[in-house]
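Thread: 2-acetamido-2-deoxy-beta-D-glucopyranose complex, take 2
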Amino acid sequence: MYQKKEILTYFLVFIFRICSSTDTIGPNQSLKDGDILVSSGNAFALGFFSPGKSRNRYIGIWYNKVPEQTVVWVANRDNPINGTSGVFAIDPDGNLVLSDESRNLSVWSINVSSITLQKSSSAQLMETGNFVLFQDQSRSVIAWQSFDYPTNTILPNMKAGWNRRTGLNPFFRSWKSHDDPGTSEYVFKLELNGTPQFFLYKGSDRLWRTGPWNGLRLSGVPEMDPNFVFNIIYVENDDEVTITYVMKDPSIFSRMVLNESGTLERLTWQGPDRGWARFWDAPEDQCDNYAHCGEYSNCDLFNLSCQCLEGFVANSPNDWCGLDSGDGCRRNYALNCCNGDGFVKYKGQKLPDNFSLEEFEPSRL
Ligand SMILES: *[C@@H]1O[C@H](CO)[C@@H](O)[C@H](O)[C@H]1NC(C)=O
Ligand SMILES: *[C@@H]1O[C@H](CO)[C@@H](O)[C@H](O)[C@H]1NC(C)=O
Ligand SMILES: *[C@@H]1O[C@H](CO)[C@@H](O)[C@H](O)[C@H]1NC(C)=O
Ligand SMILES: *[C@@H]1O[C@H](CO)[C@@H](O)[C@H](O)[C@H]1NC(C)=O
Ligand SMILES: *[C@@H]1O[C@H](CO)[C@@H](O)[C@H](O)[C@H]1NC(C)=O
Ligand SMILES: *[C@@H]1O[C@H](CO)[C@@H](O)[C@H](O)[C@H]1NC(C)=O
Ligand SMILES: *[C@@H]1O[C@H](CO)[C@@H](O)[C@H](O)[C@H]1NC(C)=O
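Output below.
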């Protein structure tokens, strides 16, 4: 049933081209430009594409049922192929390789040791949009999966965070532009210092943080309502610190993307007439910017200005009418437990940055 193709000289072996619609590339099979894999329920497709106005070719995964091409994962994002000579294949060692036939060059491959791989490995595009390389034909052991190496999109059922056993920390990096899926300087990732929380970076500058998990939601994302269209699963144990969202109705397409302007957006498909609708984005306003106000202060959402917490005064004397230098505040007099000092309740705040319950000492407040 397989069409015999010319020798792919790079491997010096016979590679058989995928025919008709399937979700799997088997041993010694390949995908040429124009061929696609389609997941079993038709939600996702994998194949070669050109983004926007670009004529470069990339291997990507997109929504198969959404008419405007919406790419959720890209393999060779920094190594495009010029022309239609790309071949995506499982090589005789069982490795997934993308090569440019016209240049006899491998432009992308997965980084799995040959010990993990077997000659009979096969790769399957799952209905979740995850592309999985199984170690062998029994499909019981996963050697590699695209969900562990995401690009700019968090899909339902994808675990975002740290695998403490393998050290794997999938992070999200935006495209350079609408026409170029190359890696840009905007990165969204989980950090484990203090209590785990996600940070948005531009290069090495922190732009925003989600705040740590508070039992119900990430404390800086009040919109994460448990009654929303998805359930959120947060796991923090010796094996992993991960967050996953699972659609209550799996037929709804919802994705979170770190876009080219460095904004995180939650988009949901509303059908061909209404397109992708934005339900949430972050950072939202200047109060949301990382460390906007400095220590012992908070940002007033009513007038977007900083103010000292009760009992504190501005560090910088110029800040008497609004602390916009970010210098923060200090105590206006030493704590005196017997002189009426006590606790003040603040509602609707993110938990303090780098706050660690394990190292919690009352004197630090
Ligand atoms: C793949 O191709 C190599 C080289 O032609 C061959 O030795 C091997 O048996 C093939 N593997 C499978 C599973 O067909
Ligand atoms: C792509 O290939 C075409 C034709 O071979 C060539 O004219 C063009 O300069 C190439 N573009 C790049 C960016 O290499
Ligand atoms: C690719 O490599 C093979 C063998 O190494 C060689 O015969 C062939 O000419 C090369 N093709 C190109 C386009 O460089
Ligand atoms: C593969 O992993 C090794 C070790 O982690 C690293 O040094 C190497 O650069 C990686 N190669 C690619 C192509 O990612
Ligand atoms: C990124 O998202 C923000 C907020 O949703 C939007 O205003 C902006 O236009 C988006 N940028 C791009 C390049 O799509
Ligand atoms: C902002 O509003 C708060 C009350 O919500 C007020 O205490 C504060 O003085 C205002 N700051 C400025 C700079 O107007
Ligand atoms: C966070 O706290 C840990 C110790 O709890 C410390 O080692 C680390 O440097 C702190 N990080 C930042 C960014 O303050």
